[in-house]
Write a structure and sequence with these properties.
Blueprint: H1 5-14, E1 19-25, H2 32-41, E2 47-50, H3 61-72, H4 77-87, E3 93-96, H5 99-105, H6 107-116, E4 121-123, H7 133-141, E5 145-150, H8 156-165, E6 170-173, H9 187-199, E7 204-207, H10 213-220, E8 225-228, H11 230-237, H12 242-258
Parallel strand pairs: 1-2, 1-8, 2-3, 3-4, 4-5, 5-6, 6-7, 7-8
Active site: 48 (proton acceptor), 59 (proton acceptor)
Keywords: Amino-acid biosynthesis, Aromatic amino acid biosynthesis, Lyase, Tryptophan biosynthesis
EC number: 4.2.1.20
Amino acid sequence: MTPTLEAHLRRRRDRGRPLLLPYVTAGVTRDWPDVVRAYADAGADAIEIGFPFSDPMLDGTTIQEASDRALSAGATPRGVLAELARLGTEVPLVAMTYTNLIEQRGPRRFCAALRDSGLRGLIVPDSPLEEVGDLEEAAAGEGLDLVLLAAPSSSAARLREIGRRSRGFVYAVTRMGTTGENEPIPETAQRLAEELKGLTDRPVVLGFGISTPGQAAALARHADGVVVASALMRRLLDGAAPAELGEYVASIRDALDRGA
């Protein structure tokens, strides 16, 4: 039986392995499935798959550009799901999408389609805690782990609720605002990760703006792992091949494992 996303990540974390979750926008290039395979071969613990969307509220300019390129090339949720179903990777895949795409099918049908295509998790950054109930129920009913986001501005009570209700891991965002690259990571990110680790036993993963192996290793000392997104998409948009992206992910994997 395939383990849940959370069981997979817990097992690796509990063995002392810092978690690495690289991101790719589905459809951004013709060979984007090869990027997923390269990430898996490079030591990713899970892989975040961004569904292209015309108005990604929390994505910075790089991922917005990647989404625009994918949409211009004709990417659709149905086509993305068909490609994912053919991938066959054992590394857990986590969909990152927005509420509008889910509502077009309805939460239950959307979650069922993700499950049927082999995904094990779902992130919906524009679905606030107060409104996530129906999606939470639909995801659980289809065996998907719905990952909730925690912001530096959240109160201790809200962080505790997020830690209780999130599945898979808790996604701790390093800053208020959108994703990005080549920007300093605020000290509040470290404090947020440490506070969450005191409130939940679920893996706590930091994301937004983590661009270099050194940044990833430094932040992983305070959390259980990191998401790397914009830095990878910038390389892809600038012409990097899947193998080159795999090499960069491998360099982050090495830095995490060495703690430097």
